[in-house]
Amino acid sequence: MSTQSTQNTKQAPDGGWGWAIVVASFMGQLLAYGSPQSVGVLYPEWLNTFQDGKGMTAWVGSLVSGVGLIASPICSACVVNFGARPVTIFSGVMVSGGLMLSAFAPNVQFLIFSYGIVVGLGCGLVYAATVTIICQYFDKRRGLALGIVTTGSSIGGFLYATVQNELIALFGLNGCLLLIGCFALNIIACAGLMRPLHLPAYYLKQRAALAEKVEEKVLEKPPVVEDPIKKNQSVNVPITGETKDPPPFEKSLVSYAALVRLMMKKQKEYSEYLRSTVELLQNWVFVAMCVSLFAYCLGAYTPLLFLEDLAQSEGLISGISKIPLVSIMSIAAGVGKLLLGVMIDIRWMNSIFLYAFTLLGTGVALLIIPITKNYAGLQAISALLGFFSGNWSVLPYMTTKVVGMDRLTEAYGILMFFGGFSIMLGPPVAGWIYDWMHSYDLAFYFSGSFVLLGGAGLFFAALCCWNKNQDETQTPDTEGINDYDKVATVA
C-alpha cells in the first residue's frame, strides 16, 4: 500500500524530462492526425479510383474523425489501466496498419473499415495517451504544454496535404498510402520517450493481487516451535486445530454470493451515472450546448472533405494546388486554437458568447461558399473556417462555467458523444445531397443553415444566463487560473 500511495502522490516536475515528452507527443499527434486532417486531398482520388457515390465515399473521412471522439471514454480507460507508452505503441501499429491496408482496398467498404475505423481508433488512442501523460508531467505550465502538443494535429494536416499531393503525383494513390503508413510507424519511436510518472492501474492491481497471495501463503503456513532439547531440529506445531476444506457446495455458494455483490455494486454505479446524466440534461443551457455542438459538427466538417473536390469540379483550379485548401484550414485552425485560448483568459470575456460567435461566423462562411466563383475566395473562406474551428479550445472552459468543475469530465464526455456522432453523419449527408442534386450548392446551404441555427440557439441561451456568467467572470484571478489548470486535464 505504501508503494501505491507514493506512486499516486508523485508531484508533476513541470519541466525537465517533461519537455522531451512534449516533443514526442507533438510528433505523435502530427504523425497520427496528419493524413486524417488532410483527407480532403485523398477524397477526389478515391472517387476517381472506385467510381462510387460521394455519399458512400464520404463515410471514410467522416468515420476517421468521429470514431475517435465517440470511443474517447474507452481510449481514456486504456491509458489509465495500461499507461501512455504501451497505448501509444499499439496506436502506432493501428494507424500504420490501417493506412497500409487502405493501399490494398478493393472497394470503398473496405476503406471504411481500414481507414475510417482502424485509423480513427488509433488516432483516438494517440490523443488520449499524449494528453494524459502531459497532464501528469505538468501542473503550472500544463496549459502551455497542452497548447504545444495539440497544435501538432493542425501542423500535421498542413504538411501532409502537400506531401500527399506530391506522393500521389510520384507514386500514385496506393504508393502514397503505403509511404504515409511507413511514416506513421515513427509513432512507436515517440512512445519510447514517454517514461511513466505514475504506475498504471493494471500494474498496481497486479502488484496488490501478488501481495495478497503472499500474505495468504504466510498465514496458511503453520508456525515453527523450536524444541529446547533438540535445537538443531524443528517441529511444526500448528497453533489452531486441524483445518478442513469446505465442501464444494459451500465454495460455490460463496462464489455466487461474491458475484451477486459485484453485480449489485456495478448496478448501483450505473444507476448513479444515469441519474447524474439525467440531472445534467435538465440544465437547459447544457442541452443548448449539446444541440449547438451537434449542429456545428454536422456542417463544419463538410468543407474539410468536399472543398477541394468542389474547386476541381467547378474548374476553379486546374490540376493540384501547391498549397491545398485543407492545408490552409489546418494552419488557420492552429492559429485559432492559440488566439481563442488567449481571448478566453480575458476577465470580461464570456465563453458562451465567444463560442456562439465562432458558430455564427462558421455558418455565414459556409453559406458564402456556393456563390464564390474563384479559387482565391475559397482560400479566404478556408482560412476563416479553419480559424473558427479552433473553438474546440473554448469548449472545456465553457463547459466548466455551465456545469461546474466537479461535473466537467462527465459533461465533456456527453458533448464528445454528440460531436463524434454528428461528425460521422455530416459529410455522408452532404454527399448524398450531391448525388441527388449533382451540385454542392444545396449541401453547403444545408450545412451552413444547421451551424447558424446551432449558434443562434446557443446565443439566446447565453443571453438568458448573462447575469450568472457575469458574476462568475468577476471572480479573482487566482481562482480562474486554478480552474483553467484543472480544465486542461479534459482539454
What does this structure look like?
It holds the Pfam family MFS_1. Residues 21-466 form the Major facilitator superfamily (MFS) profile domain. This is Major facilitator superfamily (MFS) profile domain-containing protein. 78% of the residues lie in helices and 1% in strands. The longest helix has 43 residues, at 142-184. The protein has 491 residues and is an all-alpha fold. It contains 21 helices and 2 strands. A two-stranded antiparallel ribbon has the order 1-2. It is globular and about 80 Å long. Helix 2 (17-37) packs across helix 8. The protein has helices spanning 2-8, 17-37, 39-50, 54-70, 72-82, 84-102, 108-137, 142-184, 186-191, 201-220, 248-281, 284-300, 302-313, 325-344, 351-368, 375-388, 395-403, 408-437, 441-464, 466-473, 477-487, and strands at 224-226, 234-236.
- Rg measurement, Å: 27 Å
Report, as a whole number of angstroms, the end-to-end distance.
32 Å
Q: What level of helicity do the residues show?
A: over 70%
Number of helices: 21
Mean pLDDT: 78
Specify the overall morphology.
globular
Strand order of the largest sheet: 1-2
Number of strands: 2
Uncertain runs with pLDDT below 50, 5 residues or more? 1-9, 472-491
Largest sheet: 2 strands, antiparallel
Query: What class, by secondary structure content?
Result: mainly alpha
